[in-house]
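call fold(seq) -> tokens
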Amino acid sequence: MGLITRGLGPGSSLVASRLVSRVLGSSRGELTSPLYKLVGRGGREGGGRVFFFFLPLRRLSKLAHPVMASDVTKEVGENAALQIPTAGIIVVGDEILKGQTQDTNTYFLTRQLHGLGVKVKRVSVIPDDVQTIASEVAQFSKEFTFVLTSGGIGPTHDDLTFEGVAAAFGEKVKPHPLLVGFISAYFKTDDLSSPAMKMAHIPESAVLHFGEDRSRGIKSRYPIIGVKNVTIFPGVPHLLERAFVLLGKKLFHRPGIGFSSGEVYLTADEVEVASALNDTVAQYPSVSFGSYPKLFHSYYKTKITLESLSADVLVSAEEYLRSKLPKGVVVDYVDDTVTSPWEHIDRLLSSSPSLKTPVQEALDILKQCFEQYSAEEICVCYNGGKDCLAVLHLTYAMMQRHFSTKLQAVYITEDNAFPQVTEFVQQSINRYDLDCEVLPGPMKSALFTLLAKRPAIKAVIMGTRRSDPYSGTLEYFSHTDKDWPPMMRVNAILNWNYSNIWDFIRGLYLPYCSLYDRGYTSLGSQDNTLPNPLLEAKDRIGQVMYLPAYKLKQHEMERKGRILSKQ
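ret:
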């Protein structure tokens, strides 16, 4: 039985269906319309079965990594002339095939090799069996410039990679004197038949590769084994990664060869842009294209990737693609505006004049806070909402400018919280590398607990705006009430309005809680929050749906979705 989960997008080249038709000796599977391609057929010949899995798009993105037919690389022109080095990766281990261990080595190796200008052509996962290893290694060695194996080189009965690689080249394993010395000194044994000495028995023609990082003065104490064009790595991820970092460039990089890459983000789905993309593929056969739908993303629906050995050709191909796409579908999305926040904040302010005054006002307040209090005295109160996200991002940027320590934060939970909010808060903690206390509400008791655990805290930066309930008389710096924990509340975005918040967040392409894309405009708990009824709409087939929060026009109705709200 065969299962195909890739290459079934709406591209016109019909690679997957025609390939299956050839294999089965049948013309079945030939579809003509890009959209009809998503409907699906199967074929059966000679007792074998091949299944196309055509799933609803919302399922497809989770079960497979869908790409368009144009994802196939056409290695012609300058690519062929420069002889791009290729690689095959063989992962050895029954535990991988049984789902007992998650393979992270493939992800690491493919990214590293790609960065070195090596095109990974195939990845194979095989069991701990000498003949299977030998057959796969022999075949890979003939087909690819480099072969990398991971796993199966330990001291136990099922560690058979050395034996399999030796058999692939008609050799036997024998003890290597240098390895015998290492293992004898470490494991305190001279017995060549001991389990430890099994790791000293390597193929007869093997060579030892010692890694070295001269810039840091690091040299590996134990070697990686190579046999012809095969490099044998350990299966333990941190050992493999450390070895590759020290040896990868030396073993696999060819000077003068490297990929240039680009990305184009679109607010249109694949069907809408398939013709333009396929036209570009035909015009630039030396460029590799990929198309990746993103079904639930706040900023784009499709990501197009381009890759070439020539930076000039890449630029030309991207310009051609943009000229063929429907107007208004390209978005200048930036995947990470957090790592270097000031670069992107400055760019946003230069392109959005309406944000200059509120953002500068908030930065002035935060600057005063950072001048008056030390890092250990400052904490951000964060709940995953849009207002807190805006002030968190600004505070994080100021923290980078004034201090070198982590930003302190507190997340005060509430009963029956939305799971999407809880998940997003954790993502934010990771994204901004926060030193965060997670405390149960209500807020008053949580702040008492916070001070008991971190008595140095004096200032809490809030995401409060003047339009929030009971906030009309607040100042930028407001002490807590007498019966509350003694703290200074810093209200940096006090005068921001609803538009300011969304212009700032979306102008910086900041990730935000997914509920906002489902019509929620003000987040509380599941007990008191519904989608804002003013955002109710109908989809293509007439079903009720809700527009995203940033589409709300009546800003004074921001809290309309709150149950028992006075508005």
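The chain has 17 helices and 25 strands.
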